[in-house]
Amino acid sequence: MKRSLYAVMALSALGTVAPDTWATTVTLYGVVDANVEYVTNIAPGQPTVNPVTGQVSVGPGHDRVALQSGGMSASRWGLRGVEDLGGGVQALFVLESGFSLDDGKSMQGGRLFGRQAFVGLSSSLGALTFGRQYTPLGTALANFSPGAYAYQYEPLDVMTGLNYRSDNTVKYAGKFGSFSGEGYWSFGNGVAGAGEVPGQFMRDIGYGASLVYANGSFSATVAYDEYRPTITPATGATGKFRKAAGAVNYAFDRATIMAGYRWGRNQFPDGTVALHDNLWWIGGIYAISPVLKLSLGYYYQDLRTMKVTPAAPTVHPANPWEVLFIADYSLSKRTDVYLTTAYAKNAGLDLHSASLGFSNVYVLGQGKTNMFGAAVGIRHKF
């Protein structure tokens, strides 16, 4: 009885509850996306890094042709549910599972719902949700990236950080006129640890916020994100990884142009700077016809400071940059075919390098300084 009263009080803060109007809708949705890819100068496996000297050891680079899952979009399926509670109040949930279409395996480390898994309430005052969710920095930049977060070659991890999906998250999202905003707190982001350890409240936490302004043809956003991954599991010592970003876009009749900047600073538990970088990007999207769209983007990462461990020397590698081009042709509202290409210098595709701990398959081979990739694929949305 007491729990029911508390629930009614919480819902009353968002609007009047009318039980006789309750209704439930569940939607099954997803994307299946596959392509044949050619890539140059790629190493056969992940490199090793000497924690004292910072020296990277990697195998020789070769060309590769392969069937890949996800070019324009990562393959996924999900369930989205909404229950009308009356008075403009809704209960909602999302369960979204990522998978690799070429071999049928689950992504995100084998999680059943590794992309998203949350439940919450929404009203005219906004939505409050609980579970595994995207950070505000991740959602804010989606409409300001030239490739619209194209899965295969856009440097998403570099732009938003490895915690752009965070576990154990409480998130608020609201829209007020021309402004929309989000804010979140994660009790354990799940990147290098699950957090929620007794006596170690700050271990693996994360928090941040974003604000988006959209009025007619012009849009702009600012966002901040910080998280504390576990660096030393034995003691629970955490680092401090921070990012701040701003971006703008302007839409014409057939074209949209955009530009953005992201500042980043990662620190070890003792305060030593592990990585200090700046990322700039600029690009645009042009609709040649209602069914043919071209996208072009340029990304430049300024690596100011980088250290593998606090004891290792500071290194100043050559700054990576990448050019991305996409041609997307719609066969219907749900099915399209595409050509996506990218060229990266001083890093693998997606700008993956030591600055991200080589967390991606696009690792440059020994002695190589550039990588080119091209893929032809098909995508279907349901």
TrEMBL record:
Residues 1-23 form the signal peptide. One of its GO terms (cellular component) is cell outer membrane. Keywords: Cell outer membrane, Ion transport, Membrane, Porin, Signal, Transmembrane, Transmembrane beta strand, Transport. It comes from the Bacteria. It is a multi-pass membrane protein. GO terms for molecular function: porin activity. It is found in: Cell outer membrane. PANTHER family: MAJOR OUTER MEMBRANE PROTEIN P.IA, PROTEIN YDDL-RELATED. Homotrimer. This is Outer membrane protein.
